[in-house]
Amino acid sequence: MRTFDLAPLYRSTVGFDRLFSMLDGFESTPGYPPYNIERTGENDYRVTIAVAGFAENELSIEARENTLTIKGSKQQTKEEQNGEVLYQGIAARAFERVFQLADHVQVKSASLENGLLHVDLVREIPEAKKPRQIPIKNGKAKAQVIETKAA
């Protein structure tokens, strides 16, 4: 059995490092609904999920600690109950997608357009955790003169 090295993917995905670590040892995950993860900027990401047939009130998005959970539950209308379905190819079943987010990744906004749910994420690193430049001195200490006044 071959093993695949996902190391090149780690270099190009700053915000989802933990997500790719979890994919290293994944078994089979359900494929419904399909989704994309895009990098839209240096610290900006977008998760797009195909939720055709779902209304805004049938979807819920919850961000807790380093987990983003998106749930959908389809409410049947009276029109659908009256008719007889001869073939059902459009999946309208309930779903739950859970994404593990990297540290300091926050949900910025969510929008539903043309059957696609877009969840925008941003990685906001606190100032204390950002790298900073340290000046290098030449090692020669200058003599300091301390002036005091006699009382």
Task: Explain this structure.
With 151 residues, this protein is mostly beta strands. The chain is built from three helices and seven strands. The termini are far apart. About 5% of the residues have low confidence.
Computed over alpha carbons, the radius of gyration is: 26 Å
Q: What class do helices, strands and sheet pairing give? A: mainly beta
Number of strand elements? 7
Oligomeric status = single chain
Beta-strand fraction estimate: 25-35%
Task: Name the poorly predicted regions.
Answer: 23-29
Report the order of strands and helices.
Answer: HHEEEEHEEE
Number of helices: 3
As laid out across the biggest beta sheet, the strand order is 1-2-7-6
Q: Quick one: biggest sheet?
A: 4 strands, antiparallel
Query: Could you give the distance between the termini?
Result: 86 Å
* Helical residues, percent: 10-25%
Q: Could you say which overall geometry the principal axes of the C-alpha atoms support?
A: elongated
Mean model confidence by pLDDT: 78
